[in-house]
Structures are given as C-alpha cells and as structure tokens.
Amino acid sequence: MSPQAPVRAGSSPSAPATARGVRTRAALVAAARTVFERDGFTDAKVTDIAAEAGCATGSFYTYFASKEEALSVVLYEAQREVLDPAANPPTNDEDPWDAITASHRAYFASYRRNARLMLLMEQVAAIDPEFREIRRRFGHTYAERTARTIAELQDRGLADPELDPFLAARALRAMVTRTAYYAYALGDTVGLDDDADLEALVRTTTRLWRNALQPTPYDR
Amino acid sequence: MSPQAPVRAGSSPSAPATARGVRTRAALVAAARTVFERDGFTDAKVTDIAAEAGCATGSFYTYFASKEEALSVVLYEAQREVLDPAANPPTNDEDPWDAITASHRAYFASYRRNARLMLLMEQVAAIDPEFREIRRRFGHTYAERTARTIAELQDRGLADPELDPFLAARALRAMVTRTAYYAYALGDTVGLDDDADLEALVRTTTRLWRNALQPTPYDR
Amino acid sequence: MSPQAPVRAGSSPSAPATARGVRTRAALVAAARTVFERDGFTDAKVTDIAAEAGCATGSFYTYFASKEEALSVVLYEAQREVLDPAANPPTNDEDPWDAITASHRAYFASYRRNARLMLLMEQVAAIDPEFREIRRRFGHTYAERTARTIAELQDRGLADPELDPFLAARALRAMVTRTAYYAYALGDTVGLDDDADLEALVRTTTRLWRNALQPTPYDR
Amino acid sequence: MSPQAPVRAGSSPSAPATARGVRTRAALVAAARTVFERDGFTDAKVTDIAAEAGCATGSFYTYFASKEEALSVVLYEAQREVLDPAANPPTNDEDPWDAITASHRAYFASYRRNARLMLLMEQVAAIDPEFREIRRRFGHTYAERTARTIAELQDRGLADPELDPFLAARALRAMVTRTAYYAYALGDTVGLDDDADLEALVRTTTRLWRNALQPTPYDR
DNA sequence: AATGAATGAGATTTCATTCAT
DNA sequence: TATGAATGAAATCTCATTCAT
C-alpha cells in the first residue's frame, strides 16, 4: 500500500479510562510497531509484543481484540507520519515543479525514516486482500486527482497530449514509490552520504516527471 | 522481487529416478504453486499441497526437504515464464523504441498471466531478507546495464544530459513494474477489454520512457 | 550413568511465578519421571506426560523447552535421592569397614527404590554421548578419591601393594554398582525376603572389598 | 546384556536362495551393525542401513521382517566374537589363576574391539524387557556355575568360607564387565599405550579376584 | 486493569513398512 | 530379487486466546 493509504482504526475493546491505562496502551502500540517491523506480522508473537511493552500477555487483550487489530492500530497511527508523493498537488500560485520537488523530497525522507514500516505494509498487502483493496482505491483516487491536473496541462498545451492522463499519473507515482522501495526498503543506495543520496533521488525523479509530461518536439 | 529475479533452485532430497517419480514431483510442484498463490506462503499447508497433487502427505517430503524448499523450486521454475521489462536491450539494428515497446508488452502480458505469483513474490520479499537481497542485486544489475545505454545516448545528444543514468534507469524500470502491480496484482484496470487495457499500458509507459529521457528544450 | 553423577539442570523457559505455576511444574516433573521410567525416554510421549500431570499438552512447554530438557530436570532432581557407594569416605574416627558397610547399604537401598530410574539412566547413557561423558568424569573423580585412600593403606602396609590404586578403586566401585544392577534393575534376586536379600548383598560386597584390598600372605 | 548372552536368531522371511541373495543379506547385516553401532537402535533408519549396504530400501524387507529382527540377527552374529569373562572355568589340570588371567584378557580384548556393540547392547537392555530377561538368565547361569567352583574351593579351605558363593561369583563377574565398560565404552583409559592399559586391567582385576576369594587371616 | 498460566487445535516433519514395476 | 516411490500414522512443538486470581 502506498504509505498514506487510510486505514480504518481498529475498535479497541475499550478505550483506556485511567491514566495508567493510557500509558499501557501506548506502550503496547509502540511495542507492536517495533515487533511487527522486526519480525513481520506473521512471525510477530503477541507474547513478544507484551514483553516489549513491559506488561503481561493478558494485558494485550485488554486493549486489542486480536493481533490483527493491533496491526490495524499501528498502521493507522503511522499514517500521519508518512506522506504521499505529490500529495500536495501543484497550485497555480507557485512554480508547480517546486511543489513537486518538495513533495518528492518529503516522500523520500519519510520513506527513509519508515523503511521497516513500509516493508511491513508490503507484507500486509501481500497477505490481506482487504488491505490490497484499500491500497488500490487510494492509488486510484490519487491518480484521478493528478490526472485532472495533467489533462488541464494538456489543454493548455503544456503537456504531451498523447498521454492517457490517468495512466500517466499512476505510472509516475509508481515510479516514485517503487524507487523509494529500492533505495530504502531494499537498501540499494548509491553510496553517497545519506542526504546527497536523497537529493539525487529527488532531482532525478522530479526531472523524469517533468520530462515525461512535456510536449515533445518529435511526433510519433 | 521483480518477476525475473533469479532464484537459486532448492536442492531436492533426490531427483526422481523413475517416470512415476517424475510425474509425482511435477504434480507436487504444480500443486505447490497453486496453493502458494491461493493461500500465500505462510498460510499454505503442506497437507493441502499434497492433497492438491493427489498424493500422501509424506510424499511431499520425498521431493522437498521443507515447505521453504518447495517455494524455492516453485519460484525457480516460474522464472522462465516471467520476463523482464526491457530485458532485451535495444540493438542498433532496429528502432530502439520498437524494442522497448515489445519488451514492455511482454512484461505486462507476463505479469497479467502470473499476477498471483507476483503477489506471492511480494510476500516472500517482505518476509525473507535473503530474497530481498536477490531482488536488490538483480534490480541493480539491470539498472547498471540500462544506465550504460542511457549514458551513450547522452553522449550522442539523444538523451537529457542532466539525468543520472543509473537512477533514471532504475526509476523507469520501477515505473513499469509497479504499474503492472497496480493494474494486475491489485486489479486496478481501467475497464476496457483486457487487451486494449494492456495496449494502453504499453503505450503510456513507453511514451513516458521516451519523453523522460529525451533532451529537453527548456533548461532548468 | 551411575546414579550419583551430577547432571546439569536444564534451564526451564521460566521459573513459575505463582503458586499455581509451582504446583503445575511439580506435577509435570513427577509425571515426566513416571512416564520416562515406564516407557523409556524414546517411547515416552509428551502427551502422556501432560495427561499424567493432569494438564494440557501445551502446558508442558510452559516449563520445558523440549522433552530432552524435561529429562534433564528429572535426572537432576533425582540426584539428591540417589547416593553413591562409598560416597562417604571412611574417616579415621570410626572403623572404616563399618563406614563402607553403611555406604554400601545406603547404595543398595537407594538402587532398589529407584530401579526404574537407574534403567532410564542406562538408556540415556547408551543414547547420549554427553551424558556418557558426565558419567565417565564422575566415575573417574570418584576413583581418584578412593585411590588416594588405598594408596595410603598400602603405605601403612594395610593393603596389597601390588594393586594399582586407581584401577582397583574403579573396579571395586564397578562391582557394587553392577551388582545392584543385576539384583534390582534386572530383578535377579535370590528369593529371600527383600531386606535379607539386601543385607546379603551388603555383606558379600563389603567382604569382597575387604578381602580384595588386604595384603595377601601369598605372592605372585 | 553381557556380551555373550545368547540371542535367538530372528527368523528371516526367507533364507537367500541365490548367491546374489547371500551377498545382499550379508551386506545388509554388516550395514545394520555399522548403523546400529553408530546411531543406536532407535535412531537408526532402515533407509540408512540399506544405503550403507548399497541396496534399495525395499530389499531390506526381503531379508528381515522388521528393524527389530535385523537387530536380533546382528546381535546373534556378534555373539561368536564376544567372549565371557572366565567363560572357561578353571580346570584342575592347570593353574586356575592362569586360566582366569587368560579369560580376563580375552574378555577385555574383545570388549575393546567391540565397544560400540557393547554400547548398543546396553541400549537394547535398557529398552527391551525381553532382552533384559535373557541377560538376567545368562548372568544367573554363569554365576551358578562359578558358585559351584567357589563352594568347592571353600570346602577345600582355599576360599573364604564367609562368602556367599553365588553372590560372590556374580559380583566378581560384574566387576570385570563394568570395568571393561568404563575403560572401553566410556573411554576412561589411564593413558598408557593400549596394550599396556589392557594388561593393567587384566592384572588388577585378576588380583582382585584372587584376593577377594582367598581365606582371610583375620576374622570378622 | 493487570497478571501469567492454561488451553488445545493444528502444523510440520519423520520413517517403518508396503507395493507396483 | 531388486527397486525406490508411496503411504499415513504418529509425535513434537507453537501460539493466539482465555481465564482464574
């Protein structure tokens, strides 16, 4: 799933009523994220999560109905941390390429910070059809939104009229997300220092976007 | 992993010596693929695989040392079926864009045929670091190869000199593979008939490639 | 292994924290001993042990990481019950033969009480090289200790100077342990009542010890 | 079991009729001994035995009805190789101590040669009550025979009249067999060269026998 | 709320034995 | 006889979830 896909928050058996309860729940969510990221959902053991949170196994079920629900909560809480590439569509006011550059930078930075979580999401997407459907819908919605922008650019003669706006939008987003996957989830970095590496990614992907959309002098 | 990543073949306990053995082993490999694709590696039960193959549970272990090894064999055997985008690098003889078009078409067609398998690979990649490493290496090698072509085009003034050849190559490949994922693994199709849909993908991604690489009239 | 060989205590997954846990663990240890003695280590089923202890199969693994570990614990706990022949070396204060008599009596009595356990130990010794090494070391240490006493007696003219003290010590201990094996593990009793039988063993072995060590009037 | 305990020969499904059959059977028996000695009866796999014999698994069952039967045959065939301590009772013609010395030497030498087999026998004895009974009976018979000799010596004033002839006989034999076990099965050798070590065992045990039986000057 | 032991269904794997060729 | 694949009945061990305290 793309990082920002909205996940339904699991309905915990009961919201914590006491301050202590709030603390325990928070510890469990943090522990769950740690363990899920470390072991993957399938191999993660409820026992380990509780141990990591410093509480008894039974307490886990005070706050979550099941392991699945804990995952759901972890993913939900993580959403705010993870941004979408080009989540802020270009406005007319500023240079649209500056906006896209910033958006790509934010995305790569976020992916780098949350690489283990992204890997977890890939696993969940591979396991859970429901999650897959959420991801699909989210990607679709994003692409439709971007497609409108592209269509507009085409109308104004600023984008290659041959492109299918929707497919192009989806493909370009895919380019960014998968590039982040290769760089940060798989760790295929070029070997510069971390920030230079990130800037190179931003520069390259943004330029590819720009090139890809521009009206071409040749015809085909 | 990208479909074409080479997987080491698991070393079965022993190669079948009789025709009957060959048949049983083949049935088990086919059954394993079916069940892995249907249930995912983790949920797949050896019992189910044997049942699907029409033999006793124990026979599974005549040919595979473990469930992992069966997976390995399935993935290995699947390689020949799945091609890489732009696996055939353009030769000078023909129009390079024709070659890329053909390559993309082959890739999307293959991905469509093997969508469940691709999903399985995503799961394995999310679970198994070793598999991830294979995927990383393969992607790296591919990108290096393509990067050389791009650099050459740059030298001849036929490609945008601002682009980092390696990063561009990797990103463009990522665009294709992830587009296939959205379309066929997630099932986010546009709703045309299947072949038209595929052709639209081919057209769009190829044109994006072409645009993305071309030397731009503007400067930045 | 000879009954008294010290066995490393297996490190249980976790020591019980509650009274109930303590009870369950104790029940499992007792049950394990019963079943191991009845069926032998190899044939003993974890299921049976749990059933004997009156708890669920899974509970077995709350306290032992494996069947092996349970065996280890059983053997370790049994050590305190089983004594060594001549474990209490004669002191100068009392008649050394009285001390040896007492020691032999204690040993035979213990062996009689724990005959099934001894048989289990024989099985473990036959199976497990590590256990064998423990037994060997223990026997060696014992023999060295006794050898010193014998050497001293030789110096004082009270023991046959022709004897190798170490080999003699080991052989005499072997005589006692193996005699107990024949009588109680194999059940080759003479048919007197139990206590008279035991006393006859004590009397015979002690006298053989005494005779064997004494300086002989003949030479050879 | 003491090495020489007579084991019933298993009744093979059929005696080999052809020369080839004779060869295969012999290979299987040899292989079975090798594997049983190496892995113990319980862990020995029929597959391994067949492989060791260089024939197919199925062929094993051409000659043996079961794994147990193969064991039986191995043990039976081994009997001729393994002697009993003092199996040849002293005759009046020669010096009885010379005879016992020779007998002990033969026993230790045999035990040394067949140490793995002896270990196997210990395992079988620990596992199989029937085997235990054979061992018990054999030991009993031996002790009765020797007891008669001892009684006779007592009558002639050449042996300690206080000793129970049967118990003494059994104990002295136990001394020898268990000493061999410690030395060769457990490998607790003194560190001389092999032959010197063996001679020391012979000398010590024989002298202990002699001393142990002799009429003592003291009374008790 | 917290604790941590208890539960038990279920999965993988082993291997003696059978059997078709 | 020989072969080697097929069989399938266990047995060990896991772990999400429940529950008594």
UniProtKB/TrEMBL annotation, chains A, B, C, D:
PROSITE patterns assigned to the protein according to its UniProt record, in alphabetical order: HTH_TETR_2
Keyword DNA-binding: yes
One Gene Ontology term of the molecular function aspect: transcription cis-regulatory region binding
Name of a matching Pfam family: TetR_N
Keywords, alphabetical: DNA-binding, Transcription, Transcription regulation
Signal peptide limits: none
Positions of the HTH tetR-type domain: 22-82
Descriptive protein name: AcrR family transcriptional regulator
Species the sequence originates in: Mumia flava
